């Protein structure tokens, strides 16, 4: 929906850049984990995800009036990825240790991504409005985190299973918020009594 909005308005107004960047890092990290583990499901899904996020970043850069901050953040992302690649490939010789440490990094990063929408929780409760939440994104997050949890359980891979459980929990919390503060209840005016 953000990409559609950028293309329709030819603007990045009201669209945050950080989610594109962090999701790209997440996809690229899991892609590395999939390559180390030789798991073609992880490789295919995260290759597509990383390609899409990179396209979103390029579209954001194209429509952004302030290109310098976007470029600097993207370059910082590349530096972090290069440093991580160097760490995991050059400094850790043992393949099992490398897989475990990369799995732990991916898990921590994924958990932080799933918990980040809860930063708006106080604002939602205070305003009794879910305007800052995306219902389609909540549904997608719920389905994706449930699918990855089940896949991780099937493989008996805690690095895939554990970080996706918070995605399920936070999605259920957001569903409750959508139910509790129904759209339309947050009108900025009071009805007039006749």
From TrEMBL:
Name recorded for this polypeptide: Sugar transporter SWEET1
Gene from which this protein is expressed: Slc50a1
Any single Gene Ontology cellular-component annotation: Golgi membrane
GO function terms (MF aspect): sugar transmembrane transporter activity
Family: Belongs to the SWEET sugar transporter family.
Gene source species: Pelecanoides urinatrix
Keyword Transport: yes
Database matches in Pfam families: MtN3_slv
Compartment annotation: Cell membrane; Golgi apparatus membrane
Topology in the lipid bilayer: Multi-pass membrane protein
Entry's transmembrane regions: 40-63, 75-93, 99-121, 133-153, 165-182
Major site of localization recorded for this protein: membrane
Gene3D superfamilies xref list: 1.20.1280.290
Keyword annotations: Cell membrane, Golgi apparatus, Membrane, Repeat, Sugar transport, Transmembrane, Transmembrane helix, Transport
Superkingdom in the source lineage: Eukaryota
């Amino acid at each position: 929906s953000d990409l559609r909005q950028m293309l329709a308005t030819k603007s990045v107004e009201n669209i945050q850049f950080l989610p594109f960047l962090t999701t790209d890092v997440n996809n690229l990290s899991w892609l590395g984990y999939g390559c180390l583990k030789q798991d073609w499901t992880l490789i295919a899904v995260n290759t597509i995800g990383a390609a899409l996020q990179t396209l979103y970043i390029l579209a954001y850069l194209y429509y952004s009036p302030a290109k310098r901050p976007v470029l600097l953040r993207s370059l910082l992302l590349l530096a972090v990825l290069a440093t991580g690649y160097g760490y995991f490939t050059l400094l850790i010789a043992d393949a099992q240790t490398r897989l475990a440490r990369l799995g732990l990094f991916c898990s921590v990063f994924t958990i932080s991504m799933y918990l980040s929408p809860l930063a708006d929780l106080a604002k939602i409760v205070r305003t009794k409005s879910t305007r800052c939440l995306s219902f389609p994104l909540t549904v997608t997050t719920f389905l994706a985190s449930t699918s990855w949890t089940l896949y991780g359980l099937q493989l008996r891979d805690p690095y895939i299973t554990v970080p996706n459980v918070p995605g399920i929990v936070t999605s259920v919390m957001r569903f409750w918020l959508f139910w509790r503060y129904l759209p339309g209840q947050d009108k900025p005016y009071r009805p007039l009594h006749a």
